[in-house]
Amino acid sequence: MLRATISTKNNVDITQCKELIAFFKKELEGYRPDKSKIFTKGQIGRFLKEADDKQFFLTKIAWIICVVGACRIEELTNLLLQNVEDEELVFPIQIPSNKI
Fold first, then answer.
1. Is residue 48 located within the same domain as residue 65?
2. Fewest Cβ atoms nearer than 10 Å: which of 1, 5, 25, 65?
């Protein structure tokens, strides 16, 4: 990945730099990347059921939209409180479009 980045950004081929490649191999010896922390279905379901609506209502809406896949991540981040209407039992959401 580093080689591709340097090649793309600086137009430099580092495959010929044997000392540099040896250095990177030595430095990366024993390296293990941290495992990503992700929520399980059970954790999401428990949060949606048990979390207080008064405090976490908008977070719950965001989770539901993400899980259902109703919008892209940039559309979710551009979502404003004005995009959500309160019609007592139903909360229609207008997702702002970023498409041109």
1. yes
2. 1
